[in-house]
Amino acid sequence: MADEIILLDFWPSMFGMRVRLALAEKGLKYEYKEEDLRNKSPLLLEMNPVHKKIPVLIHNGKPICESLIIVQYIDEVWHDKSPLLPSDPYQRAQARFWADYVDKKLYELGRKIWSTKGEEQETAKKEFIECLKLLEGELGDKPYFGGEKIGFVDVALVTFSCWFHAYESFGNFSIEAECPKLIAWTKRCMEKESVSSSLEDPHKVHGFVMGMKKKLGIE
Amino acid sequence: MAEEVKLIGMWGSPFSRRVEIALKLKGVQYDYIEDDLTNKSPLLLKSNPVHKKVPVLLHNGKPIAESLVILEYIDETWKANPILPQHPYDRAMARFWAKYIDEKCMLALWNACWCEKKDREKAVEEAKVCLKTLENELKDKKFFGGESIGLVDIAANFIGFWVGVIGEVVGVELLTIDKFPILCKWRDEYLGCSVIKENLPSKEKLGAYFRTRVESASQSK
Fold first, then answer.
1. Which fold has domain B88-219?
2. Closest C-alpha to A125, from A97, A164, A180
3. Where's the GST N-terminal domain (chain A) (predicted)?
4. ipTM score for this prediction
5. pTM of the model
6. Which among A50, A93, A134 has CB closest to B73?
7. Where in chain B are the domains?
8. Which of B79, B138, B129 is nearest to B105 (CA)?
9. Is B36 on the interface with A (CB under 8 A)?
10. Separation between Cα atoms, residue A174 and residue B42, nearest integer Å
11. What is the DSSP annotation of A17-47?
């Protein structure tokens, strides 16, 4: 029986992009369904009644929610191709730790950068750069966080890179100036078809954020 | 080579106790190191420089931080009494509910107990939504993990024990049998398990700790 895979998503979501990337890495065919988050579909509300959020992966009718949980699920089911988590338990723990770190920090700080002003924005920018520098340190001299190939932490983090242009523009700062090694890593990732086909155009994302700011009445 | 397992923890922390439950469940021998969180030890700061928090597991000198990450590590390293199910879909569900407990429930329950009186009604409603969601997930299972305790049950230790202790101290009863009969039944089964019972702080000591907190909060007003 062929696998039926549906992804409920919202095009600018860096969380949704993680799932797209994992599916691409595994070479999986799936049906992409765009959600209008101001008018959530009955399918989304049925498949994620707890959080009512995207992304949701529906595999043979059964839903999985929360992007990193979905990525781990994909990795476990389709374990023969392009493994994302290492096989060593300690390295797996380190990968989970850093992916969790990205989740805990970057979204909130990024949101503050584009939606606040003055001191609140400055604090957010400073903390954001500190987080990226810490991640740079974790990357070290490796080509990817996963070592020679992209892994779980790469998938968790690289999808934020298409939001960097928006953060830089609305925050009036340069991420590359502060974290050149990390930007070099994002460029290296983008050379892979799975990454470039899963991430959105930074200018499109910028336009989306501009639209959000107007809607929320933020100058 | 003999295995060296150390746990840096704090007696009253539900996160720290989660790790102890898992280690005991698997029959792993370990050295427990109590950390004074008001004066964090050099070992803690070196082992968890990113968050500077307990618990931290040190396995043959290598540190692992974040309780849910530690639980998965323990499950993958010591195979007796598995905490996570075998099937990828069931594993995803277990991770989902453990995350829900960590990110939504614990915060909502904590807020409901400690918020200002004017915000209490709303906070209690939000906490009850979380409890109802868990009640619905439990359905007719003995434990979240099925017949035996699993990842979600271990993650729910705060709900099983701390909520009741704090509730008594601040006068907010959240887990009531009329609204949450299934969850209350789970709590009784849960607290009856020896591996849980033996890895909880003393009710008296925890109650006294939170009473001190209430007193110092009212004195600083």
1. Glutathione S-transferase Yfyf (Class Pi); Chain A, domain 2 (1.20.1050)
2. A164
3. 3-82
4. 0.96
5. 0.96
6. A93
7. 5-77, 88-219
8. B129
9. no
10. 35
11. HHHHHHHHHTT---EEEE--TTS--HHHHHH
